[in-house]
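Feature request, filed as a ticket because there's no other form

It would be nice if the structure record came with a short human-readable summary line next to the C-alpha cells. Right now we just get the raw output. Example of a typical job, pasted below so the devs can see what we mean:
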Amino acid sequence: MNPIRLVLFDITGTIIKDTGDMVRAMIMALRKNQISVDEDELREWRGAAKRQVIRHFVEQQVGSATAGGDQRTDRIYDDFRSMLEAEFESHPVAPIVGAEDTFAWLKKDGILMGTTTGYHRRLSDRLLQRAGWSDKFQATVCSDEVALGRPAPFMIFRAMEATRVIRVSEVIAVGDTPLDLQAGANAGVRGIVGVLSGAHNAERLEQEPHTHILSSIAELPAVIQEYGVRSGHGG
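Raw output as currently delivered:
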C-alpha cells in the first residue's frame, strides 16, 4: 500500500475553533435581504460553498425564475462577506487544541498538508495569517476557485494537483461536517476522517461515509500510524 503523502484539513471547526461567526453572518445577511432562515436550517449546509448556500435559500423562498434572483444572490453574498470578515476580526483566532502538535508531527514525517474551505480567498488567507499559519500549508483551496464546492471532490483534486500528489490512496481528508465527509468519499481518498471539534456530533457524522471519527485532529497521528506506512519523503 502506498504511504500517506497528503493530509487536507477543513478550517473552521477542524483546525480553528468554531465560534459561530459564519452562521451569525449568514443569518444577518439573508435577513437583511428579506430571506428568513434559522440556525437549524443552516446546520446541514455547514462546509458548503457560501454562495451556493445563499442561492439555495433565495431560490427556495423567492423562486429560481424570479427576475433579479442572481442579483439578489450576489448582493446577499457581498453583505455576508463583509459581515463575516467583521465577525472574525472582532475576536482572536483560536487553534483547535493539539493542532500545532499534529502539524509538527506531519511535517517531521514528510507528509504534505493543505486546507480546503467554503470560505472565499481573502478570508481564508486572513484566518491562516492570524493563526500564524501563512506558510504552514503546501496548498490552500477555496470553494470559489473550483467549479463546485462540497460535496463535490474538486477542492481535494485541486489540492492534489498543487502538491503533485497523484494517487488518492495517498490522501487523507479531515473535516467536521457531513459535507466534508461526502467530499472525501466522492474523491475516493484513502482516509475520510470526521472530527467532533466543530459543528456536528458523532451520531450525525457516523451517518456519512468515513474511515474514522475522532475527537479532534490531535488524534490524527495515531490514525496514520494505524495504517502501518509512513511517508519517509522528508520534505
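Something like this underneath would help us a lot:
Confidence is low (pLDDT under 50) at residues 229-235.
The chain has ten helices and six strands.
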